[in-house]
Write a structure and sequence with these properties.
Layout (H helix, E strand, L loop, with lengths): L8 H12 L6 H4 L1 H41 L5 H10 L6 H10 L1 H12 L1
Helix pairs in contact: 1-3, 3-5, 5-6
Length: 117
């Protein structure tokens, strides 16, 4: 039989995998099979952690708002603040409220006092 010279498609696929895994350590960046496995694992982790990141940031914002509100008065809590915001139909999300709580606490106190009355 005549000799078959392989094309560039397989080499192109392997170089694409190696470029993706170039920052990985050891055999995970050098060997094709382990690099492919690590690439799949990395993509699964990134997909999972995108939703986890949203969850973590929401928890952080809630904690910051709650801490800032409880400095104001002992009997006032985060849940009451959010409840009163919805009752007064003020459209402020938790991210904005957390930024206000960090940068300008007086503004947060003014907002909380307005919605109580």
């Amino acid at each position: 039989m005549t000799r078959v010279k392989r094309g560039y498609i397989a080499r192109r696929r392997r170089t694409k995998i190696r470029l993706f895994a170039s920052t990985f350590i050891g055999a995970h960046s050098r060997l094709t099979r382990t690099a492919t496995q690590q690439k799949m694992r990395a993509l699964v982790s990134s997909h999972r952690d995108r939703s986890r990141q949203k969850r973590d940031f929401r928890r952080l914002w809630i904690t910051r708002i709650n801490a800032a509100i409880r400095e104001n008065g002992v009997f006032y809590s985060y849940s009451r603040l959010i409840h009163n915001l919805y009752k007064k139909q003020l459209l402020l999300n938790r991210k904005i409220l957390a930024q206000i709580a960090i940068s300008n606490k007086n503004c947060l106190y003014m907002i909380s006092n307005k919605i109580i009355k």
